[in-house]
Structure formats: C-alpha cells, structure tokens
Amino acid sequence: MKDSIVKDALILFLITAVAGVLLAFVNEMTKDPIARQKEEAVKAACSAVFPDADEFNLTEPKADTSQWSSKYVKDQIDAVYEARKDGELCGYVINVCNKEGYGGAIRFSMGVYSDGKLGGVSILETSETPGLGLNAQEVLVPQFKDRKAESFVYVKGGAAADNEIDAISSATITTRAFVGGVNAGLDYFRMYLR
User: Fold this and answer.
1) Looking at the 3D structure of the chain, how many domains does it have?
2) Domain limits for position 164
C-alpha cells in the first residue's frame, strides 16, 4: 500500500515536472514574437493617432504625477511618446488605460498636438461586449479625430457641441469609460507635457 502511494506520487511529480519544463520552453519560444507583435501594434497605433509624425520616441515618466493620479484614480498612463516630424516636436502620443469599462480595462492611444488638439484615438486592448461596447472602434473613435476641447462629455441622441461625443447605444458604461480616459489623457497633457 505504501509503495503504491509513493509510486503514484513519483509519477505525478514526473508528469508535473515534464509539463513545467514544456511550458517554460514554449514560453521562452513565444516571448520574443509576442513582444514584437505588441511593439508593432503600438507603432501602428501611434501612426494612426498622429499621422503627421514620422518618428515616435518613448519619453521618461514624470517624477511626480500625484496631482493627476488623485483626480483620475481609475485611469493610468501606460506610456508617453514624443511625436516628431523631421526632428521637430509636434505633440505626444499618450497610452491610457481606463479601468471602468463594462468588460474591464480599456487601453488606447491618443495623439495630442502641441496646441491641445486631438489627432485621433486608437484602441489597443478592450474586452467589452461584442455588438455593444466593442462598437467603440466604429462609433467613438472617429468622433475624437481632429477635435479640440478642454474636456469631452457624452450625450445620447446626437452630439451638437464641439465637446460632445455621441454615446454608443446600449453601451453607456463603455462610452463613459472611454470619454473619461480621453479626458484623463488630455489633463495629463495639460499638466505635464504642455
């Protein structure tokens, strides 16, 4: 009886060890291609939100952003890139993560010209509801292109003012999170990058 338990334990240990080694091998083999794919996605997003720029340089994070962080507790700035055209700084690409989406975090890039005008917004990652919140790419993203406002608000039934964004029908939580994230990025720009 004791030998049977020891034998079974050894077999389970060997199976677990082999599975662990195989998983580590697969992880090592896929780590670089996944990192390259994410890097290419960020480059494509930078170009989409700031089409005038020909160079994007990752900048150092600001030392103290506590004033911004205390105001935007559900948002974080993942990265900031200087957008340059022929070596001249023309604005920034700010990668924002808003944690208030219906399906979880919404990560996106936003291009902000030096004068505060949005070049555009591009979604990097979202897990919103298909057919509703996932429509943000088609419904919300185009509304931010080449717009300038101190902050944006969402409305139902058609945007009329320069700072209004038409909400996604039946996806108010996604709309609120997305607009809130854009406002957080704009405030970050005004506080630390302008």
Assistant:
1) 1
2) 55-193
**Residue 23 lies inside a defined structural domain of this protein:** no
SS3 state at 114: coil
d(CA 143, CA 187) in angstroms, rounded, equals 19
Instruction: Note whether residue 37 is domain-resident.
Output: no
**Gyration radius from the chain CA atoms:** 22
The stretches in the chain having pLDDT less than 70 are: 1, 128-135, 137
Report if residue 168 sits inside a domain: yes
User: Which is it for strands 88-101 and 75-85: parallel, antiparallel or unpaired?
Assistant: antiparallel
**Is 39 inside any structural domain?**
no
Q: Tell me the whole-structure pTM to 2 decimals.
A: 0.79
The pLDDT tens digits for 33-45 are 888 888 888 888 8
